[in-house]
Amino acid sequence: DAGVIQSPRHEVTEMGQEVTLRCKPISGHNSLFWYRQTMMRGLELLIYFNNNVPIDDSGMPEDRFSAKMPNASFSTLKIQPSEPRDSAVYFCASSLSGGADTQYFGPGTRLTVL
Amino acid sequence: GESVGLHLPTLSVQEGDNSIINCAYSNSASDYFIWYKQESGKGPQFIIDIRSNMDKRQGQRVTVLLNKTVKHLSLQIAATQPGDSAVYFCAEDLTGTASKLTFGTGTRLQVTL
Are A69 and A50 in contact (CB under 8 A)? Predict the structure, then answer.
């Protein structure tokens, strides 16, 4: 299995632009997570899907952020409009429900907003 | 861009020695705890977990200790190897299924030859 796939791996954009991050979870996993990692705040959970349904989006910072999971093999995290403080590494992870030992993280997307 | 942020505490250990990485968690109601390893440029990787009804759990070369009285978690790595060099995070969870993790700030482990 290729593991969790994220694209792009690096994104540089200008303030005000729309950014879309993509994730393909591991086949057969029924939970998907989006995390953000910064030096200031560490790793934070943004949103969690189970069986393609958003379960908890309390970590989404504000209305500029939105996430979708149209099917079991694809999810997007969109920022519109982007701001410099959104610069971070964004990780997608997928798992079988039940424990962290089945949760696998992708390689991350490093986002820089100028 | 980002301003200067937190500097991670660093633990420097000689190859072959044992490492102990500590973590204080925040929520006394958390009942599931996990240790992750993150190598440079990669996502976090699960190492070992423990539930609140246990004090100790052992894996291959790793042991996690949980002290609920003082809300403290530790990770012990036996016979530390150069490949163990990474940032280590603890995480706590209220759901028992790792679906709402709160991560600690991390400790950088440097293994010297």
Answer: no
